[in-house]
Structure formats: structure tokens, C-alpha cells
Design brief:
Number of helices: 11
Mean pLDDT: 93
Number of strands: 20
Low-confidence stretches: none
Strand content: 25-35%
Distance between the termini: 45 Å
Strand order of the largest sheet: 4-3-5-6-7-8-9-14-13-12-10-11
Shape: globular
Structural class: alpha/beta
Radius of gyration: 22 Å
Bound molecules: zinc ion
Length: 410
């Protein structure tokens, strides 16, 4: 692919980070790197390396490829480890982000003339660029942000939107605050965390909202809403096709895996047309399942379903456990449970000894039932092959969020 070759040439020419990294790996020149078919031979890019390459003169990092006058916007990450990372964009980068996001949201059925309530705060984060995609599609955009659920509920009641855009956690929380089944909302578009694609969780949201739920997914350093699910609800299509190249790798060995139907692994992304701070083989930390079968919507872009995040994964006696997968199994016990869980690892680090303690919140007005905890424990063991210690907790005792839920308590 021509855009990839141009991208690689730019990395050698402008990015000390990639020039050094690729040469150290034995790729003396762009010619040695070759085309996309050989990409699996190249080294990965990890978030920590980018962070480590920052200096007082260059707060972005040594992967920066554009001069200050070419940059039109600088986003930052939430910076969970201290200082935020900066994500600069040229005008062309911003345009590509908006076009890709618009493609993803249009796949979910948004069209010109729709009324859409969004709850993302533009703020410093890349999700702000996704909001520009709504202008591009031509919807009537009603931003309510986070911070006031009352404002969100009033906007839904008084302005009769066709769709809402929010995290799956917030979509679940709003259902506890208001009866939305008979609202005007026919589409609930979720993003920001795994969950929207989990069958039990999705079914609960669809039942409560009386609406179709589809999900979208992006990753801060690469782009917002890169993936968007179509109305067939069979996984998220790559909306940023042509801007981003997707690979699947074994999360432990890093070995490339074929993008065949049903394959699972960590998503690795490469910019194809990015100019400001392009990334090559960036490890996203998202564990996904690939869907390549023909989609009834006729889009040919590959699809993914997010299984969980690497940084939330635990290993219990050699078995990988994603808290979101535990939530999905527990969610199958609704209406006896609320669907909220909290995994409480006893030890520090990823490796845990069984049984893994899990708090499971009961449904509103549900009485603790001695048999229920045992049944949940047995089901989790059968499905996820992990021993748990299930503690039933009363309704309302686990935290609600307008943004992302915490599934692991350290
Ligand atoms: Zn489709």
C-alpha cells in the first residue's frame, strides 16, 4: 500500500525515535522495511517508550514528526501515571480523525437530521474530535457532557432525541434514575470501555432503553472512534480503514496472528496517513475477537468485538481472566443481580491465587440467597475456568459512574 510506504519514509526522515528503533532492529532504510506484507517483522511501539523519549524541549516525545507551525491541535491523555501524554495533530490528521469517526458513527445508523444527545466532555481528550464527527454527519447535536444526570434526562424528555451517545456504564446508570423505555431514543451508541458488546449487558441496556445498542471504539494515541458497529450488531467495523492498519498479535509472545474469523488476541495499530506523531505497530492493550464473515450490511471492513483491556487482566493459576468477562457471566443472572461486579484481588500484581474474590451486587429489593452465590461461582468456573469467591452485596453498594466503571479494586 502506497500510503504505508510514504508513512515509513516520513518516520525515517523526521522521527529520531523510529529512525533509531528501526535501525536498531536491522532495518537500515525504508527500502529494507518494504511494504505492509512485511510489517509483522518490525518492532512494536509501547506507550512507555514514547513517554520515556520526552524531554524539556520536546514534551510530545521523539516520535514527533511535524514542526510547531504544522500543528493545529494538541490533545492530552488522562495521565493515570502522572503527567499527561500530548497528542498533536496537523490539519490533515484532524480531518482524517473526523472522517474516520463519522464513518464509524454513520455505520451505527446516525444520519443527517437525527437529534443526538452526547455526554462526552470535549475537554482535553481525543473524544472531543469525535464530537466534530456529528457535525460532519449533519445531525442536530445536543451536548450535555457529564456532571449532571438531571440535565441529560431532561434533554431526553424535552428535546426528543433519536439517539444518545455515552459509555455503557452511564447508559446503565441513567436507567436507574429514570424510566426511559418509552422515551424517543431509538439508538444508544456506547463507547469508552468494553461492555456494549457483551450479550447479557447489551440485552439489559436494550430492554431498559427500548432501543438498539451499538458500540464504537478508539484509542487515544491512534484516533477516536476508529471502529463502529453497524445495525447488524455483529461487531465493530473499521471505520478508519485506509487511515489505520490493524493487526492481531499473541499478547504474551507478540507473534502475529492471522485476521481470520473468530481469532482472538491483542489489537496492534499502525497509522497510514498520520503526519504529526504517527505510530507504527502500537500495542493498544485491547483484547479483541476478529469477525471476518460477510456482514449483512455489505460493508467489507473487518470487524472486532472487544473482550477486555490488558491492564485489567488477571492471571489466576495460568488462566487469563478479564473482569469484563466475569461481569458478562454474572449479568446472565439478571433479574436477580444488578449486573454490577467488583473484582477484589488479594495480592498485588497480575498473578493471583484462587479463589478470586468477586463482589456481586444484587438487584433492587432482592434478598441475599445462599444458593445464588454458589450457582454464580459454578457458572463462572464452567465458563471462564476460574475459581472465585462470590460475595453478594446489597443493591446500591457498588459505585455508579457517568463515565467508565472500575471493575477491579486494588
Ligand atoms: Zn455490518
Amino acid at each position: 500500500m502506497e500510503s504505508y510506504r510514504v508513512q515509513v519514509e516520513r518516520l525515517y526522515e523526521r522521527s529520531p525515535f523510529y529512525r533509531n528503533k528501526l535501525r536498531a532492529a536491522g532495518f537500515e532504510s525504508p527500502r529494507a522495511v518494504g511494504g505492509l506484507e512485511g510489517i509483522a517483522e518490525l518492532p512494536f511501539t509501547e506507550k512507555d517508550e514514547l513517554r520515556a523519549s520526552r524531554t524539556a524541549d520536546n514534551a510530545v516525545g521523539a516520535h514527533l514528526c511535524a514542526g510547531p507551525r504544522e500543528i493545529v491541535r494538541i490533545y492530552s491523555t488522562s495521565g493515570t501515571t502522572g503527567t499527561p501524554s500530548y497528542i498533536p495533530l496537523t490539519a490533515g490528521d484532524l480531518e482524517n480523525w473526523i472522517a474516520g469517526s463519522a464513518c464509524s458513527y454513520a455505520a451505527s445508523g446516525l444520519a443527517a437530521g437525527d437529534r443526538v444527545v452526547t455526554t462526552y466532555n470535549a475537554g482535553p481528550f481525543v473524544a472531543g474530535a469525535a464530537l466534530d464527527a456529528f457535525v460532519r454527519i449533519g445531525v442536530c447535536h445536543i451536548p450535555v457532557g457529564t456532571g449532571s444526570s438531571e440535565r441529560a434526562l431532561l434533554a431526553i424528555e424535552q428535546l426528543h432525541p433519536d439517539a444518545v451517545v455515552l459509555t455503557p456504564s452511564y447508559a446503565a446508570y441513567l436507567l436507574e434514575l429514570g424510566d426511559l423505555r418509552d422515551s424517543s431514543v431509538r439508538r444508544v451508541l456506547v463507547a469508552g470501555e468494553p461492555g456494549g458488546g457483551e450479550p447479557a449487558f447489551r440485552a439489559a441496556l436494550e430492554e431498559g432503553w427500548g432501543a438498539r445498542v451499538t458500540e464504537a471504539m478508539g484509542i487515544g494515541d491512534v484516533g477516536p472512534s476508529l471502529w463502529g458497529e453497524c445495525e447488524e450488531q455483529a461487531g465493530m467495523h473499521l471505520g478508519a480503514r485506509g487511515f489505520v492498519h490493524a493487526e492481531l498479535v499473541d499478547p504474551e509472545t507478540g507473534e502475529a496472528r492471522e485476521l481470520r474469523d473468530g481469532a482472538t488476541g491483542e489489537l496492534v495499530l499502525t497509522h497510514l496517513r498520520h503526519r504529526a506523531a504517527p505510530l507504527l505497530r502500537f500495542r493498544t492493550g485491547d483484547h479483541v475477537e476478529i469477525r471476518t464473515g460477510l456482514c449483512a450490511c455489505r460493508r467489507t471492513a473487518p470487524r472486532v468485538r472487544c473482550i477486555g483491556r490488558t491492564d485489567e487482566m488477571l492471571i489466576v493459576r495460568g488462566v487469563n481472566v478479564f473482569p469484563s468477562a466475569v461481569r458478562e457471566v454474572v449479568g446472565g443472572f439478571a433479574p436477580e443481580v444488578s449486573g454490577r461486579i467488583l473484582v477484589r484481588p488479594r495480592g498485588a500484581g497480575v498473578k493471583q491465587e484462587p479463589p478470586l474474590p468477586v463482589s456481586v451486587e444484587l438487584a433492587r429489593d432482592a434478598e441475599p440467597d445462599a444458593g445464588l452465590a454458589a450457582t454464580i461461582r459454578a457458572r463462572v468456573r464452567d465458563v471462564l475456568v476460574v475459581q472465585t469467591d462470590i460475595e453478594l452485596v446489597p443493591w446500591g453498594s457498588l459505585q455508579r459512574s457517568e463515565y467508565k466503571s472500575t471493575l477491579v479494586a486494588r
